[in-house]
Amino acid sequence: MILMDDPKQHLLNVAGQKFAEKGFDATNVREITEAAGMNVASVNYHFGSKEELYLETVRHAARMCEQITPMPTWEEGVPAEQRLREYIRSFLTRLLREDVPTWHRKLIMREVAEPRPGGCEVFVHSFVKPSFELLQGILRDLTPPGTPLETLHLIGSSIVGQVLHYHHARNVLKLLFSAEEFQRLQIDRLTDHIWRFSLGAIRSLCPRKSKGEGR
Amino acid sequence: MILMDDPKQHLLNVAGQKFAEKGFDATNVREITEAAGMNVASVNYHFGSKEELYLETVRHAARMCEQITPMPTWEEGVPAEQRLREYIRSFLTRLLREDVPTWHRKLIMREVAEPRPGGCEVFVHSFVKPSFELLQGILRDLTPPGTPLETLHLIGSSIVGQVLHYHHARNVLKLLFSAEEFQRLQIDRLTDHIWRFSLGAIRSLCPRKSKGEGR
DNA sequence: CTTGCATTCAAACAAATGTTTGATACGATA
DNA sequence: TATCGTATCAAACATTTGTTTGAATGCAAG
Same domain for A35 and A83? Predict the structure, then answer.
């Protein structure tokens, strides 16, 4: 039998995997409990209902996602260009790294794409918003002082959109590109491309700031 | 009663709306047939099964999506910059326009994000691939002759990612931005931003081509 | 009218699914 | 040992859900 020092935690983990794989509706409690080696009734005993179990997995995933790959922080004086690069890398790492339980981010992306009442709003405010505001701070330093907030939001969306594309469209990209080319789309390469693409775009959109060095 | 000259077509339309809204698993046939004002058995009579009805709605949506907002074509001599702009606008229009049955694109995006056996592959090859190759052609004209294919693919993904972001993240953007700002994110504004952002990025990534005019 | 065919319908069916129940086992405490 | 609270289990329950059935209906051709 698997290690089961905390059966409730074990059940949560198995359920998280299943929900991330197939979604809430397509996963039934018997499938979960069988995979966990536990009884059907354990779901309702430990969590009250399937719905509540699901919400618990989402909350757990959000906590873990933040904990395992925390958003980067910098001390005073790190140039905005470098911060942007590390932000992109950190974001991509959250989405694409394979060495860590993969169900956390899958579940979260699923929840973001199709929010379930009670699952998404709290997550957006506790996780997405701080991350997006961190990016806004970087962009403020990369653009002239008077740049309107809406422009910053548009630029931010362009960057985030590029990153997320490699998660959302992974099935399609696999069909569009050759197997070898798809294989090559690793974090390093994508970070480099998105960073250079976005930095070039920003510099072209906004008149250069005085302080930065030419590249 | 609603116009029902072709009951099978009517059923397909209602089913498409429901599937696009809530997905395959979360939609049951009674919900569909009641909304269509028809009997439960009509699904199996006309389509054989719920599964086959679903696949039919996906195929129908793909056909309609292409028909209503066809990919733009240009005669010889139209500058690549302008073609890129019209490509982006056409893409955004497919995703965001409100004046046309909205379920087609919703269903397709859902199918792309989470392919169901037999529904996605054919769609990618008949719809996504030609669209992506059209973009590749534009990008070839915007970059120096020797630019590697992989670079073109990365740039293309960056552009497509930006566009799709406003579909995928619509729920999150609604929470991140103020209601008024979200309202302002219309096709015109987004086209302009993504076009200028991407064009600036391309020009910065690749040494300028000789032929284009400065902007 | 009658025959034949396509369609619609209410009802029933069988399987799946979330949940509840009541019994049982276990472990700590007195 | 007796008692209490926790946890697990097989079984049952009540719904939901996709599908089938067989009768009824409408309509066009013979």
Answer: no
